Amino acid sequence: MKLDIEELFELETSLHKKEIRNSPAAVAALLADDFTEFGSSGRIYDKPAIIELLRNEAVAPDQKVTVENFAVRELSPTIALVTYLSSKSTLRSSIWRLSKSRWQMIFHQGTRISQ
Questions:
Q1: Which tens digits make up the pLDDT trace of 59-115?
Q2: How many angstroms separate the CA atoms of 83 and 27, rounded?
Q3: 44-46 and 102-112: which strand pairing?
Q4: What are the residue boundaries of the structural domains of the chain, listed by start?
Q5: Closest to 40 measured CA to CA, from 94, 107, 112
Q6: Quick one: DSSP state of residue 115?
Q7: Which residue of 25, 49, 82, 87 is most buried, as measured by CB atoms within 10 A?
Q8: From start to end of the chain, where are the E strands?
Q9: What's the pTM?
């Protein structure tokens, strides 16, 4: 399957939306079972921890996260690295894996940048 940058942009940024973040089923579909996150807080999360954390997260419905410098690098035919700067002054990187014709995130890291 050809790398689709627009699809990866939509998948990545869907995780910024309240209706997705607060939906355990939606988050579970986007994250691989072996998902790991290195949070900007320094904590390490697995898939069940992220699902629980986001389920109860208070996000204003009109809160928008801007995405700048979105880039995708193909690491293999089934692995892609996504990087960007979010509006919260955080550098973000995610690794997505294509399995059974769908992309799932296997790794995410947020790194705050100093102002």
A1: 666 667 889 999 999 999 999 999 999 976 889 999 999 999 999 999 999 988 876
A2: 19
A3: unpaired
A4: 5-112
A5: 112
A6: -
A7: 82
A8: 31-38, 44-46, 67-76, 79-86, 90-99, 102-112
A9: 0.90
